[in-house]
Amino acid sequence: MSDILPPLTLVEHFLGYWSEFGTNKVIADPGLSSKQRALVTDAARSLDKAKMMRFDEKSGNFYCTELGRIASHFYIQYSSVETYNEMLRRHMNDSEVIEMVAHSSEFENIVVREEEQNELEMMARNSCPLEVKGGPSNKHGKISILIQLYISRGSIDTFSLVSDAAYISASLARIMRALFEICLRRGWSEMSLLMLEYCKAVDRQIWPHQHPLRQFDRDISAEITRKLEERGADLDRLYEMQEKDIGALIRYAHGGKLVKQYLGYFPWIQLSATVSPITRTVLKVDLFITPDFTWKDRFHGVALRWWILVEDSENDHIYHSELFNLTKRMARGEPQKLSFTVPIFEPHPPQYYIRAVCDSWLHAEAFYTISFHNLALPENNDNLNLWFDAFAGIGQTFHVLYHTDNNVLLGAPTGSGKTISAELAMLRLFNTQPDMK
Questions:
Q1: Which portions of this protein are annotated as coiled-coil regions (predicted)?
Q2: 437: CB partners within 8 A, 6+ apart
Q3: What are the beta bridge partners of residue 337?
């Protein structure tokens, strides 16, 4: 720790240590090693309480958790993680999500000022589609208003609110991404999708309930998208309509051609899949992804990332998740194939759902159902008590492992038999030195 802390920090702790314990203990421990150990132990206990790591005080060992890795990757404070552990649930609505984010420790420096109340109340009425718990006079209510104002692209007049809004927006995207990763690692299907929606809502400053074509806001006017929202013209309906029908719907003839053109740029893919049982509890899935849109570098960049999720809606659980990068070359070629395995449990659910959700575009997703009604699974067979005559390639190290005490460096890929090799060396030890067990 003395190599990590800056010299001034060590001096400060040294002076505090001196005043707390006296000269004798300072002379006995001039390197502050006991003080450093106490600091590390306190920090480890706090991280253990937040479930970001496991701390074994007897051995002094640290064991990182998935939650800790996520918090480290997105620079989330441990006190925020404690808040999420308390407030994050499997089922939450939009207002509860915003309220939870507003309780993040990253925003603890936000204060409520009397001169801001009138403008905050006006913002809550005009720019906040979700409920604001506590109102503008409450610290977390103020943060909730500014979060919603940022997504709504609202304007601010008061200078102090401009500063607070910039402070909040600087951390908002990474907090949302961290919450999405937490829900994904916990296997929560509904909450993962909701948090991913809000990740994209923050990135694009568009609400999930607004029309998807608002994402082309530089090319399609707000007046056109507003009319589409008022008339309930979702993407599926617009795809089926002709240009003239769209123009008549929005009462703007040229707008029909414009909307139809940008519908072709909207990321749209089709899914199909084949399922093959490997055992009674494991299925192999071959997923075919067919892009069905016109690639334009200005909108899609070099590649589009898609989350591939296999979920059981009855149990609200994700059994498989992975990121798939769709490049411009792939979008012009043949259907892309992904292969993976998923577990299946008895009693069998009626179906699994495969969902492909774009990581950066709101409402860009595809859906496929895997039905288990006619799925023929292999029968359970008893294991036969058979012996093997020879080892595989890696197992040919048997002689040196089992009959000698020589050092061995064994490098091999996953699933090739490294564990068996280690067990052979352990058997050698148990047979020759039983007291070493």
A1: none
A2: 430
A3: 288
Both tokens of 237, joined, read 């309906």
Q: How many CB atoms lie within 10 A of CB 16?
A: 12
Per-residue pLDDT of 81-111, as tens digits, reads 999 999 999 999 999 999 999 999 999 999 9
DSSP 335-367: PEEEEEEEE--SSPPSEEEEEEEESSSTT-EEE
At residue 289, φ and ψ (nearest 5 deg) are -110, 120
- DSSP notation for 6-38: -HHHHHHHHHHHHHHH-HHHHHH-TT-HHHHHH
Those residues whose C-beta lies under 8 Å from the C-beta of residue 380, and which sit 6 or more positions away, are 280
The tens digit of pLDDT for each residue in 268-301 reads: 999 999 999 988 889 999 999 999 999 999 999 9
Q: Which CATH superfamily is domain 269-371 in?
A: C2 domain (2.60.40.150)
- What CATH class is the domain 212-263? mainly alpha
Structure tokens that stand for 201 in this block:
């809502």
Identify which of 262, 271, 263, 261 has the alpha carbon closest to the alpha carbon of residue 291. Answer: 271
Residues 163-181 as b or e (16 or more Cβ within 10 Å = b): ebbebbbebbebbbbbbbb
Q: Where are the domains of the chain?
A: 7-49, 78-204, 212-263, 269-371, 394-436
The identity of residue 223, as a single letter, is E
For 119, the token pair is: 């403008």
